[in-house]
Amino acid sequence: MSQNIPSSPEPKRNFPSIFKAVQTIWKRERSITEVIIHISNALALMIVGHLLFTYVTFEKIEVVFSSVNSEILYYVLGGFIAQMIDGALGMAYGVTATTFLLSVGISPAAASASVHASEVFTSGVSGYMHLKFGNVNSKLFKTLVIPGIIGAILGAYVISSLEDYAGYIKPIVSIYTLFLGAIIIRKALIKRQEKRQLKKVGLLALFGGYLDSIGGGGWGPIVSSTLIASGRHPKYTIGSVNLTEFFVSLASSLTFFTVIGLGYWQVIIGLILGGVVAAPIAARLANKLPIKSMMILVGMVIIIVSLRQIILGADKFF
Asked: Which chain regions cross the lipid bilayer (predicted)?
């Protein structure tokens, strides 16, 4: 007697529901900011793909990796420390990495170029997440992005043109990083700031982008701190400034590579590798560390290292 063995249920096909979801996403109204991001990502992927398929061969890859030496470990360490601090405090990646690179003998232009190249990745992810979670003020972003890019290009061109005078420029850049260290400590100690109206936001972005390229960092501490102190909402200020930082870092990096070339790829790779390793650790520790104490400690370290660079470079002037 034959038994009717029930066949296993056929997997349910959800093609109509998937199609509706895709259709809903496709028809969703997009802001101008989001459209700009997607267009920029597409252009970047096209350019990178063209460069990879045109210039990168197995022979060249082998040459690149055969030239790696033990110095890359210093840059990995610098990227790790900078990302740990940035992940815990939400700021100071650029100034920390630049201060570290200057202390191990990297020139100011090369340090800034390397930091901004690595920041393209970190700020891109950060800016996209802020955009995704609705933390970006479209009007503020539009006000910041063009002046910020112009300032970044000008600063990168100036510091690159003075590469032959690196010995003289390094203590000047160290004075700037010392100033940023003091700002970090001030942010930790001050409890309440009197709100004041800030009208010339574009000039602030131009100034912030310029100093960020020259000093290898400072976009966040200068622009975000000033805007929040003027009474703007911290959530939308930080989100808008972080998204703008991607374009500022990209413009700065392209200018550096155009002027001084790609001779510092080992520094860039080291920073990226160290940052990737540190990112998940910093994310876990972010809510467990005493933020104010960390900010004071980081500010003091930056000031001490900057003072050391200023004293060592003083011989160039006297």
From this structure: 35-53, 73-95, 140-159, 165-189, 201-222, 263-283, 295-314
